[in-house]
Amino acid sequence: MKILRFAAVGVAAALALTACSSDSDTPSETTKPTASESAAAPEAATIKLWLNGTDTPDALREYLTTTFAAQNPGSKLVIEQQDWNGLVPRLQTALASEDQTPDVVEVGNTQSATFTYAGAFSDLTSLYPELGGDKLLPGFVEAGTADGKIMAVPYYSGARAVFYNKDMFKDAGVEVPTTLADFTKAAQKLTTDKVSGFWFPGQDWYNGATWIYTNGGDLAVQDGDQWKGALSSPESIKGLTEVQELFKTATKAPADSDSNEPWVPFNQGKAAMFSAPTWARWSIDLPECNEGVAADDKSDEATAKRTKQQACNEEHTGVFPMPGLDASKVATAFAGGSNIGIPAKSQHQELAQNLLKIIFSAEFQNMLGQNGLIPGNSEYATSMGDDVYAKAAIAAALGAKLTPAAENWATVEGDRILEDFFQKLATGADVTKSAADADKLITDTLN
Amino acid sequence: MAATAPTVAGTTATPVPPARRRRPKVGAYGLLVPASIIIGIALGYPLVRQFVISFQEFGLKQQFGAAPEWVGLQNYKDLLTDSYVWTVIARSVAFCLVNAVVTMAIGMSLAVLMQRVGRSARITLQVSLLLAWGTPVLASMTVWQWLFDTQNGLINWTLSNVLGIESMAQHSWIIEPLSFFFVATVIVVWMSVPFVAFSVYAGLLQVPTETMEAAQLDGASARQRFWGITIPMIRPVLSIVLLLQVIWDLKVFTQIYVLQRAGAPTRDTNLLGTLIYSYSKEFGLAGALATIMLVLTLALTGFYIRQMLKEDEL
After folding, report:
1. What is the pTM of this model?
2. Which residues, including other chains, have CB under 8 Å from residue A250's CB and lie 6 or more apart?
3. From the CA of B283, how many Å to the nearest CA of chain A?
4. Which of A4, A9, A24 to mutate to test the interface with B (most CBs of B within 10 A)?
5. B284-312 residue pLDDT tens
6. CATH no., domain B90-280+300-313
7. Which fold has domain A43-158+335-399?
């Protein structure tokens, strides 16, 4: 038994060492600052583009690869899809390494500031006029600018609109609301023991921000070179009080859920309204419309059934932009979307710029619009068409607002300060006190 | 140890052939070289790097090429003057101790049970334990999350529909920190019990039947035999397993992180592992906190390791 014990101590020691160090591994790659731009020669190469999630449809990806190959003889474009989840840590390591970095990268608009201030992107200021200049969505350009240099440009934006179940509206005798106050009343009227008038989970600050912004408040404001949490401003408090009223009286959504897949309860008949980017229309699947076709069935019959199903879903579902304080305006919603930039460590700066030029060509911008994404260049927004979805999307996008363009904003999101805060409101905590606490955390994090 | 020392010493002391000691030591050390190199690269390098970084201002800018600035003990000072960090340390230690003790108690009971029951019952038990041990963490976390889900979870459904406790229908298990840690404890214990049960069971098999028989003949009751003979004899195994549990439970990360993402309030449920992770843009702070955690681990286990090594020298 002695030998056994000795071996066990050895194993324990080794495990203990592992145990202590595995959580604390710090990225060990410290790359020297290299001026990669200076060496850029338009030499044929394979470049990598990282796109996130499935937001960019396949047809658009194909267009990019074929056009790029045609315009840059001998060179090739490879598109790699990244998951939105855990994107920031992945970019932190990949963008810092010459071997691993993509040559063009998409990054969430609220995540841009993290990388632009750190010097992860190449300066695009001189290319900016050629890509669209002032016509590029201004809020997104601001989010991609650090110390006066434009580091990332808008790729697409997605506006939020409210989807509603027309049958439930009819049964409850509710009309589409025209002011934000009306919206609360409508949601309350639609709420029953089993049904949420408005699907509003406790951690859903993306939608909650609408009430803050619309009432003239903000999440954080800049004061000199310092940032300050702004949730306790009188305007924000007014919006947050309305948010808490909705939590209390107009939703059955759990306080421990976030804004993911709000169409699921809607499809199950557990919610009369939900708010999401307009591409959520493809996820609506009401039981009365379901034709029972498999998603991968490519036969003509299946396609016809799918078309019928989609038409039926859209017949039973309405959509409107969240209304503003009075009937003449729409609400200021939170704008989702992405920026796109060229990592400073990329070894193919010139080819990467060529790819950006293709992305900002009229043809590709129009293709984005046709697929329900608001193109980065506002000149091409008309390509979205004029159905109710496009109208709601464009109306909502015009007033949409981003998160504060603070260097450390991504840390506020990483620490989930706003999720925690809205959840507190959902569980009935005092608005003024919770807002003051959250403001303190935001201020500490941003400076 | 006094009463049972003779028995233990009598059974464990295997005579060491004297020839071994006289061999030239160079060869023996030579054999250690490959292992040392691997440990040096895989563990030593990150550890040293972490230590160095903890004295630097090292953020994203440095990650992308800026020169790090030496700040001395500033990172440590920032952390140790932050009352929130102390709250998290206290929370982590409490969580770690409760989990280690509960895991040990259940694991030992199962080991004793395995020894006492019949063959088929034992095999069933062993297979289920192995399955729990072998399931990938994220896969089982998903299942646990579904079980405790607020709206569609099996636990809430059973409580409200089967047992008729209406108020539990939409109960959120993870929104209150205490309830959150209860769920986390259930999951962590469930995942670590198999290791304890098997290790202790292996230890139990080593207890010689002759000794037990002799004690029985001398009139020792079952309880006396268990506490007086079995436990002291398997003590080395118990110590090591408990030591590992303390270390593992202190650095628990995956279970807490996944549960937090399932909708728990993050700040009120952070443990050391998740707090270090949240410093993912300030590597200097993260390195300092990781070093503090290392010191904490050593403080919790150092006495114990010394004790074990001392016993070995007997």
Report:
1. 0.80
2. A184, A187, A188, A190, A191, A196, A197, A198, A200
3. 7
4. A24
5. 999 999 999 999 999 888 888 887 788 76
6. 1.10.3720.10
7. D-Maltodextrin-Binding Protein; domain 2 (3.40.190)
